[in-house]
Design brief:
Blueprint lengths: L1 E10 L3 H12 L4 E4 L4 H5 L6 E3 H9 L5 H5 L1 E3 L1 E6 L2 E6 H5 L3 E3 L2 H14 L3 E3 L3 E6 L6 E5 L5 E11 L15 E6 L3 E8 L8 E4 L5 E5 L4 E8 L10 H12 L12 E7 L2 E6 L2 E2 L2 E3 L5 E2 L7 H22 L6 H25 L7 H16 L1 H12 L8
Parallel strand pairs: 1-2, 1-11, 2-8, 5-14, 11-20
Antiparallel strand pairs: 3-7, 4-7, 5-6, 9-10, 10-11, 12-18, 13-16, 13-17, 14-15, 15-16, 18-21, 19-20
Bound molecules: P-hydroxybenzoic acid.
Length: 394
């Protein structure tokens, strides 16, 4: 068995783990990033595509990525579409803010390139990763391709290993909060030009639909479906029929069509585990909490966790006082719960529940009418969507 030593062992080499490794490197703290997935698998798994403005600032100010400002697209609003008419929520006007369309896979590629450029120790495609002794002398073990066992000793272990986190189980005495939803999203990547300059969140009596974008000739779209839906049984025509119906209306809007390049069904749930720390183990991002995708908060929350954690770790290492680690969980969770509420609220305002009554439907339409018809309602949505400030304590 080979043994390596580092200050921070980061389990999970997605955007959260890599950004943490980068911020620690800038603060002169060394880390090793360990992931059971391959680089290829992470780079080809489609995730959401919206960055809050403070996420963009964090990536650019820390020197991790300037490409977001070149290849990303700034969006200053979204359309809420219901009763066949689109209503724009103007982020600039209501929150003096914007967000950026920039896919998570690109964030990953930028951060990976940044850490590689700085000679970061990144280990992907590992087998049997496990964490040990998180209360006193934490270490991580894994096997490599030829089956030999490696050990990484660290002062701190960070679980950045996503929604199926292995690290999560090592937090002693944790409380878990769950909310399941009786539906899922059918996601497609299609070869078509954009249908609108910004994203469209549509509420229809058949269910929700979202028109997002990727490039000039590839778009990302979703529609609400049954959680047990099998995407392989859906023809392109059937998919377009659903999307057309849910976006139909009388304001002249037309959906651009094209070949369906990829299709999948996305799980849908809200989850929080508290606390996010046990001894020398700390959880960031989906390892500690999951949001439904309405509002695209998942990646943004993970990056906000990392920002707080990097600051706390820097203080711990410069003062050699690891008691400051106790601040992390509460500081991160304040934002997590706000985002939980926002994602839940956007979800329930726009989706159809299986046993919806006529009353529920009229109430839902009245809620949407109130939001788009009121400056304070629109400001509430705009603030939440573009992200609450990350500077200072929440
Ligand atoms: C996406 O572009 O994939 C996306 C955008 C907004 C969401 C969810 C997903 O709320």
């Amino acid at each position: 068995m080979t043994t390596t030593r580092t200050q921070v062992a980061i389990v999970g080499g997605g955007p959260a783990g890599l950004l943490l490794s980068h911020l620690l490197h800038v603060a002169d703290i060394d880390s090793i990033v360990l992931d059971t997935r391959t680089h290829h698998r992470i780079a080809t798994t489609h995730r959401a595509g919206i960055l809050e403005q403070d996420s963009v600032r964090l990536l650019t100010d820390s020197g991790a990525s300037d490409r977001v400002l070149v290849d990303g697209h700034e969006h200053e609003g979204i359309d809420l579409r219901f009763d066949g008419v689109s209503h724009r929520i103007d982020f600039r006007r209501h929150a003096d803010a914007s967000c950026w369309l920039y896919p998570q896979t690109d964030v990953f590629l930028d951060l990976h390139a940044c850490r590689t450029r700085d000679d970061g120790d990144l280990r992907y495609g590992l087998g049997d990763t496990d964490i040990h002794d998180v209360d006193d002398h934490p270490y991580v073990t894994y096997t490599d391709d030829d089956g030999s066992v490696h050990r990484v000793d660290a002062d701190i272990v960070v679980g950045a290993d996503g929604s199926r986190s292995m690290c999560r189980a090592s937090v002693r005495g944790a409380t878990q909060y769950f909310r399941e939803y009786p539906f899922a999203w059918f996601g497609v990547m299609v070869a078509a030009p954009p249908s609108a300059p910004e994203l469209i969140y549509a509420r229809h009596r058949d269910g929700f639909a979202l028109i997002s974008q990727r490039t000039a000739d590839v778009q990302r779209m979703y529609f609400q479906c049954d959680a047990a839906e099998d995407p392989s049984t859906w023809s392109d025509d059937r998919i377009w029929e659903q999307l057309r119906t849910r976006l139909s209306g009388h304001d002249g809007f037309e959906l651009e069509h094209g070949a369906v390049l990829e299709k999948s069904v996305l799980p849908f749930r809200s989850f929080v585990q508290t606390p996010l720390r046990s001894g020398r183990l700390l959880l960031v991002g989906d390892a500690g909490h999951t949001v439904p995708p309405t509002g695209a908060k998942g990646l943004n929350l993970a990056l906000a966790d990392v920002r707080v954690l990097a600051e706390v770790l820097e203080r711990a290492f410069t003062t050699a006082d690891f008691d400051v680690l106790s601040q992390y969980s509460d500081r991160a969770l304040a934002r997590v719960w706000k985002a939980q509420h926002f994602s839940y609220w956007m979800t329930t305002m726009l989706h159809r529940l299986p046993d919806t009554s006529d009353f529920d439907e009229q109430r839902q339409l009245a809620e949407l009418t109130s939001i788009v018809g009121s400056d304070s309602g629109s400001a509430y949505l705009a603030e939440g969507y573009t992200g609450w400030p990350t500077t200072g304590r929440p």
